[in-house]
Amino acid sequence: MKVVAAFLLAVLSGKASPTSADIKDILNSVGAETEDSMIELLLKDVKGKDVSELIAAGSEKLASVGGGGGGGVAMASAPSAGGGGGAAPAAESKKEEKKEEKEESDDDMGFSLFE
């Protein structure tokens, strides 16, 4: 991924077809190790292709994969549908509270950029 990211940064900087040296310069500027075989493989695969078309094709492929994030809701609601008591709504509200707390604590990932 770092080779692809460096390639895309080179394209964004104005180079229509970045060279191996361009990619190495970008990777070296951030202290990343360069892998000549990976750089050459990428350059061979994208040679003669438009970057915006490659990104569009990749986006279509990712859209067909799906996110898979909906399973938790179905499983959380399944036990409450099968039971017949008043305990299910209480358990459901506790899960919502825990979920909200987790989302709030994940916002800063444990550190602040401005401290």
Automatic annotation (TrEMBL):
- What does the UniProt keyword field contain? Ribonucleoprotein, Ribosomal protein, Signal
According to the UniProt record, one GO cellular component term is: ribonucleoprotein complex
Leader sequence segment: 1-21
User: Which CDD domains does the entry link to?
Assistant: Ribosomal_P2 (cd05833)
**Region: Disordered, residue numbers:** 66-115
Q: InterPro entries under this entry? A: P1/P2_N_sf, Ribosomal_P1/P2, Ribosomal_P2
The residue ranges flagged as biased composition, category Basic and acidic residues, are: 92-102
Q: Which GO terms describe its molecular function?
A: structural constituent of ribosome
Job description of the protein: Plays an important role in the elongation step of protein synthesis.
Question: Belongs to which family?
Answer: Belongs to the eukaryotic ribosomal protein P1/P2 family.
**What is said about its interaction partners and assembly?**
P1 and P2 exist as dimers at the large ribosomal subunit.
Q: Which HAMAP family match?
A: Ribosomal_L12_arch (MF_01478)
**Protein's recorded name:** Uncharacterized protein
